[in-house]
Amino acid sequence: MAIGAAVAALLVIGGGVWAVTATGGDEEKDKKPVAGKSDDPKPSGSKGGAPVNPGDGRGDGGEDPEDLNEGRQAGESKVLWYKEAPDAPASGADAPGMWITGETVVKAAYKQVFAYAVGDGKPSWDPITFPEKICAVTPEKTADDKIIVAYMSGSSDRAKCNQMQEIDLATGDKGWKEEVEDGELFDTTLSVELNVSGDILMVGRSQSGTAYDVTSGKKLYDKKRYGDACFPAGFASGPKSIVQVASCGAGGNNAHDEVQGLDPKTGKVLWTYKYDKGWRVERAYSVDPLVVYATNEDKKVWNISTFTSKGKVLEQVGVDEDFAPECGWAILDRDLQGCAGVAVADNTLYLPTEATSGANEIVAVNLTTGKEKWRAKSPADESMMPMRVEGDQLIAYVQPSYDAGGQVVSIATGGSDHKPAKLLQNPQGVADIENSFYSKDIDWVDGRFYISTTRLTGNDESKEKLMLAFGK
């Protein structure tokens, strides 16, 4: 879906031109979406061939047989270790998730889960191999460093993504195992989404959800169709909250989306916010606090709203920009939390602008007022993406180019100087490999930068890397 700049009505606010939607009536006191121009988020990066290496993803670490650090220049980081991607079918395979503890990096790929020591990449425990391909994972680990992996029930077209397995990231031990039941008619487990909030695991099907105790695998409750032909279309979770996005009255005159705050332990609806007809809730940039990105295809506009803990719209982002976080495709499934390049901390939203020519910028937005606080320009001609906030510093990643490796930079979140300071300059000699991660997961932990692929091509002639770790 392409969101262009055409609008139904225009309003001049503070020198900027804004698209404005109709409200739901005088009696509606909540602020309704006010939108500006935007393009749909797209994955970025280039398709480059990584060195041919018939690895199985296991590796033994501690060596550099491809001499990736050869010719490293003064001041450049080094490749601490790297792993080759395991064999995948010609049609490709998913490699979802990347979880980092104090000692171990864990990565899923096709039918396996691998674990590597953070410092030298040596195996932390033997790979776990499932009988069928992995189809979903919990993006975040639990408080006690566990993850849940879902894999297919078989290899036929009728196979379901319904086999769940708990894994201990520290030891590789398998915990509880459960099978997700299908819902009602047309509500299947052909695909599922897994979200963790505290000790609650929410499993989202196409039109419903089921909550489990994440420590035992015990089923707790279901979230099903309700009211005026409403059904759960997606879930998003934070450390203490779960929100449900419902699609209501599909195809009718009253078609609309609703956002609901849930009590994670019971599933009780704490509040409901109804979007006007024509608006589709696309992403949840954050859950604690709740920051929602929605689009209106008919009016060709978008809206970013921040909500109070009681489900009232606190404010809407009023910055005239084309923002471009890296978001996966979500045509049939909502994938509400499938965006990278977005950070929220201390009542501030950090978003990257789209690079039309040359360097882009990161914009800091006050979530209470919706106004811009400051912006920082990328130190290179390549795009800069927020990763996380550490203390009073925003950590960001600058994409590599053909003649320079990527960078990790810090930006002061307070004060008046927001010039990026370089923390890590990745080597130019590995830029083509770093740039080959078209669909990727990135993280910065304890002075190390990790980049891994989230999609295997299955191309035997140019096997890509599964993961690289950079450091000083």
UniProtKB/TrEMBL annotation:
Keyword Signal: yes
InterPro entries reported in the protein's UniProt record: PQQ_b-propeller_rpt, PQQ_rpt_dom, Quinoprotein_ADH-like_sf, WD40/YVTN_repeat-like_dom_sf
Segments forming domain Pyrrolo-quinoline quinone repeat: 98-221, 257-414
Keyword Amino-acid biosynthesis in annotation: no
UniProt xrefs under SUPFAM superfamilies: Quinoprotein alcohol dehydrogenase-like
Region listing for Disordered, in residue ranges: 22-73
Membrane-spanning residues: none
Protein name stated in the entry: Pyrrolo-quinoline quinone repeat domain-containing protein
Organism: Streptomyces pactum
